[in-house]
Amino acid sequence: MDEFQEILQDFLVEAFELVEKLDEDLVELEASPEDLELLNGIFRVAHTIKGASSFLNFDVLTHLTHHMEDVLNKARHGELIITPDVMDVVLESIDLMKTLLNIIRDTSSDAGVDVSECVARLDKISGGDGDVPSPVVTAPVVEVAEPVVEDEPDYDNMSDDDVEAEIQRLLEQRQAEDKAKREAKVAAGEEVLAPPPEPDEETSAQNAKESKPEKKPEPKSEPIKAPVPRASTNARSMSDDEDLDNDAKAAAPAKRSNNSVDQTIRVDVKRLDHLMNLIGELVLAKNRLIKINDDVEERYEGEEFLEELNQVVSIVSLVTTDLQIAVMKTRMLPIGKVFNKFPRMIRDLTRELNKKIELVIKGEETELDKSIVEEIGDPLVHIIRNSCDHGIETPEVRLANGKSETGTISLTAYNEGNQIVIQIDDDGKGLDADILKNKALEKGIISEKEADNMGEKEAFLLIMKPGFSTAASVTNVSGRGVGMDVVKTNIEKVNGIIDIDSETGVGSSVKLKIPLTLAIIQALLVGVQEEAYAIPLSSVLETVRISKDEIYTVESRSVMRLRDDVLSLVHIGDIFEVERILDSSEHAYVVVLGLGAQKLGLIVDSLVGQEEIVIKSLGEYLKGIKGIAGATIRGDGGVTLIVDVVALMEIAKNVKATSMISDQNSESAQSREKTKASDYTIMIVDDSKTDRMIMRKSLEATGMTLVEASDGLEALNILKQGDYHFDAMLIDIEMPRMDGYTLATEIKKYNRYKQMPLIAVTSRTGKSDRMRGVESGMVEYITKPYSADYLSSVVQRNVNFKSEFLS
Amino acid sequence: MSDKLKQVISRQNKQQQNESIDQSDDIVQLVGFIIGEEEYAVPILSIQEIIKPFTWTRVPQVPKYVMGVFNLRGAVIPLIDLRLKFGLSEKKHSDETRFIVMKDRDDVAGFVIDRLTMAIRIKKENIGPAPDTINGDNTTIDGVGKQEDRIITILKVNKLLERDF
């Protein structure tokens, strides 16, 4: 049974692929019914499915495909001309076939679908009387009762020619496969994948079954190979003799495709996903390694081993990047997989809507991540339906407007940097911004004011709103106002951007910009206060450095002028409730975010840089936080949150003007009432223990609380912990890890320490040193050596020490 | 000879079985920790690891007791302060502060506790139900363990890991 399941799985995968191809080929065939090559290809596909399904005992499917095959065979022999009506029936039968395949996939049996009507019609076309008994699925006896199905074929009902052709075909197929097998073995030894098992077994099974009752000797095996090259140039109408050539030709390409199968293997997507996860980990480790390398480089400048380390790090980073690209590529599918279904769709729509539309597909070989390919199918269907229904006019209108009768929809895919652009253009009537606005107003989707402020592009985007439809009436095709909403949701799900352009009367163009992959993205890292956030680079249009007075407030919203536009602004700190600990500087950076035609300026404190990040989920416990799309692990091992630009734009609408001037008096309760000498707290920062001791001795007499730190970093950490409220700090200049100047600069960044006196205690006496001290915010400059009294008095003065505490 | 050997072996087996039954049936293994003044405990098997505090990243728009997320060897894990969750005041992390990483099936989170006490083996019969007043489905209290000189509140890990905002 397991083996059967395995064969069944293979069959389904193959069948779905074939059917997809069939759809496309048939539509093409309709356009050029004379194309024998194409017709043969189609016949082959139908035949393969028939063969495999009969082997697997899917009687209904076999029954259906058999009749389809009959029709195609007639056409192939020039006995039947493919008219649109014939094509309708054939396409209908293919739809039925798809339904059957789906049922087989779900239930492993093909019961429950009535194909008799379609079969009857097929039979009529192929010249029968339409009276075809349909097989009953359940009973095994049926096989005998079946008139035409292969397993127990009733050759009496067939014409001699047909019987002849059938036997010939089976024989040749068998031979072709044997040959392929032999070739494969010769080419690559025994380990090479054998040709797919089911057609092989199928034919042998059939051969076994059929050749016995027929008992017809088949001596014609020799001439089969010879006619192959000649076959493609062969004539239209076929006599019995030419049947042979034709069949041989049918078999030959099948053999070729068998060979190419040997070059590929099917891999479970889960394994690829796992591989992708591992690569993600590797990228994180690489980022970390690069960071460590930078640190090491700084510390051990000029050492010899650095060279080697550098080499290793750059090799690792190079290989990781290559590996990542390679794995990404294995997940890539050509977008043609999605595009393939559209010729058929357009064909159906043109008949339904009585329009003439031509579909032009370009760039179907462009590749995209599998998960994204799966997501964009539906949006494209909706966009194209929309173009057909609302965009392209009826032939009469088109002629009246001086356009050609046939409308064109072109579907183009191409790479643009790290993105794939899928562009859907039509030369229809285009969108009218005013009509869209009015309609939106009518439906209450936007307010009067919003309508007035709305630019053309924003108006176009209205068609993406749920419940929006300009179609006067709901047709079978569109007008329910659901479709384009689906487009928006799905495209945003894959971090894509939608761009709509249109000119009234000339046509419209929808651009979908989609990132190549979902798991690893390029991000812009921005800093706000002490936090960092990652913004997907695909949504960043530009960054601008501005000074505070370039920000205006209009109707309690912050805006700025960006060239000729007015850009609304929001502070990232307001969205993510960031505490304003650090004093914001005079300048700020604005990250201009773009999502479709929407733009928003995000004010941040600093730009950290661009980095490749791996998206990680925040997990079940923290999911659904507005404005956060996930998290990533940075080179230093810390976690950085990733901004969800879509949600951020939503939140931004409700955020009032930002208070760029932070609260000054928040922590000014520093100078609280002092009731005793030990309420005064002083920090002593010096790397020399002796120096710290001397300072301690000098100040001990006053009774102040003294805290010591051995370098700048330690001092900063003590400050950050906030266990003490320091009234002043004594800072040595030359210290390891962080020197006095840097420490002073860092301290002055904090609002709450703005007022704290910093006193430099140093042996550096140069004027430039004093200048640097003042620049970094030191108020006093004591040079070593000093007298204890002097130090004490300077400190007392700076902290407003009350003399009555002196005992 | 071999019969005797068999007897010995079977006797030993029985003994071992009895012992293991003793262990698994009547004794619950817990890890105890202090939050504020109280001692709490969770089953030892629900603990993935116990680590010293390190840096975490704040996450916006969550209750105050959700401190943020941290990186546990490549996984991003939420960090929850049990002091705040239990309505106590904030406290600086000290040398004794620990993050306990607990898991329940696929849910994992780190919890900040004031101090670890010890691994506790406690007999099942010494564990009573939670007091009636706080009984019900919504409580995070699984039961109350009685030791000679103290009582320990045993917490439900799956409740702790459940999002409640």
Give an overview of the whole structure.
The complex is a heterodimer of chains A (807) and B (165). Chain A has 27 helices and 23 strands. Chain A has 807 residues and is of the alpha/beta class. Chain A has six domains: 1-152, Up-down Bundle (Four Helix Bundle (Hemerythrin (Met), subunit A)), CATH 1.20.120; 162-266, no CATH class; 269-331, Helix Hairpins, CATH 1.10.287; 334-515, Heat Shock Protein 90; 520-653, Beta Barrel (OB fold (Dihydrolipoamide Acetyltransferase, E2P)), CATH 2.40.50; 668-805, 3-Layer(aba) Sandwich (Rossmann fold), CATH 3.40.50. Chain A has a six-stranded mixed sheet. In chain A, β19 (681-685), α23 and β20 (705-709) form a beta-alpha-beta unit. In chain A, α1 runs antiparallel to α4 and α7 (160-188) packs across α8 (197-214). The termini of chain A are far apart. Mean pLDDT of chain A is 74; it is low at 134-153, 189-261 and 660-671. With 165 residues, chain B is α+β, with helices and mostly antiparallel strands. Chain B has a single domain, classed as OB fold (Dihydrolipoamide Acetyltransferase, E2P). Chain B has three helices and eleven strands, in the order αβββββαββββββα. Chain B has a six-stranded mixed sheet with strand order 8-1-2-11-10-9. In chain B, strands 3-6-7-5-4 form a five-stranded mixed sheet. The longest helix of chain B has 25 residues, at 2-26.
In summary, what is this structure?
With 807 residues, chain A is of the alpha/beta class. Helices cover 47% and strands 18% of the residues of chain A. Chain A folds into 6 domains: 1-152, HPT domain (Four Helix Bundle (Hemerythrin (Met), subunit A), Up-down Bundle); 162-266, no CATH class; 269-331, Helix Hairpins; 334-515, Histidine kinase-like ATPase, C-terminal domain (Heat Shock Protein 90), CATH 3.30.565.10; 520-653, CheA-289, Domain 4 (OB fold (Dihydrolipoamide Acetyltransferase, E2P), Beta Barrel), CATH 2.40.50; 668-805, 3-Layer(aba) Sandwich (Rossmann fold), CATH 3.40.50.2300.
